[in-house]
Amino acid sequence: MRAGPVGRLHHLILDCADPAAAAAFWSAVLGRPITYDDGDFVVVSGDTTTSGLAFQRAPEHRPPTWPDPAVPQQMHHDVMVDDLVVAADQVLALGATRRPGGDHVFADPAGHPFCLIPRPGWAPPVRPVVAEEE
Question: What is the pTM of this model?
Answer without folding.
Answer: 0.73
